Amino acid sequence: MVIPLMKQAEDEPGADERATLRYGAVWAEGVACAVEARRALRAFLSHAPRTGRLSLPAPLAIDAELVVSELVTNAIRHAPGPCGLILQLSEEGLSITVWDTSAEQPVVRQRDGQRFGGHGMHVVHTVSEDVMVRPLGEGKQITARLRPARKEEAGAVVEEAEAVVEEAEAVIDTNPAA
Q: Does pTM top 0.90 for this prediction?
């Protein structure tokens, strides 16, 4: 059963833009779908600015879609029974949690161009700042945290990009035919 986003992602009474925005969905066995989970993520992220929160940068939103896809797909493939998705957006970033009924721990395999499949958890670990697996009574939950670049990190990237642009403009000024 999926509860509509507007019922889930509303601000808590009296909460401000610093409060964590949450969304959750639960799917019965055989009903979960990675496409539906990605749609829920996109709806959640598009709702966030309407609550006074900043939008997630596009590259981070793309990484979040990868994480949701991989974690939900793994739950569908490797765990019998229901599974669920919990999204939490705060000033620190986005937490994506998927729970399922399998107690089997996920395996992070190294990249192998000769192997078909089995790269999902490697992708999740690559794009996430932190990935945690926690056993539950029946099953487990996997939480991946994605964090936007801090202002000082973003400032350094902007300064570097501006320097590259200045160098390119200097080259163009000295060689107008280029």
A: no
